[in-house]
Design brief:
Elements (H helix, E strand, L loop, with lengths): L2 H23 L4 H11 L3 H16 L3 H24 L8 H8 L5 H15 L6 H20 L1
Length: 149
């Protein structure tokens, strides 16, 4: 097995319990779903299958845990569809936009800000360039406060 395959299998094993955590949480936010989907990447369906297999092995085919997981998977898939429909054809901001608008130099902060904007777009908190810039400023402020703390 190559390095990519090892990483994919590791990701599936590492993330399969998050499905259970989402299921046991009852209510969960679109942000939690976004972060799960982002972490799972291309192995999303494999994570679901592994979570299901683990539930079956752990609960010896009891119906309740399966129904709980099935409801969670359904809710995640609905949220995933909603998020996909929110992603614009062109990004509202790129790294150059962030550096110019926030007076930043190239570096990790630019990536942090872009990830915050990506999440906000996916969950519907930023629907245009102006809202994306607002999220970018807020993310930078949070980042700076964490450095000071």
């Amino acid at each position: 097995m190559g390095g990519d395959e090892v990483e994919a299998v590791s990701r599936v094993i590492r993330l399969h319990l998050r499905m259970g955590h989402l299921a046991s949480a009852g209510e969960f936010s679109d942000r939690a779903v976004f972060r799960f989907l982002k972490a799972a990447g291309d192995e999303f369906f494999e994570v679901i299958l592994h979570a299901h297999a683990d539930r079956l092995a752990t609960h010896h085919r009891k119906a309740a845990p399966f129904r709980e997981l099935a409801r969670t998977v359904s809710r995640v898939l609905v949220a995933r569809r909603k998020m996909a429909s929110r992603v614009p054809q062109e990004r509202f901001l790129d790294g150059n936009d962030v550096m110019k608008a926030l007076d930043l130099k190239p570096g990790p902060q630019v990536g942090e800000v872009l990830r915050a904007v990506e999440e906000a777009v996916a969950v519907g908190a930023a629907r245009n360039r102006g809202e994306a810039l607002k999220v970018a400023r807020e993310a930078l402020d949070r980042s700076r406060r964490q450095v000071i703390s």
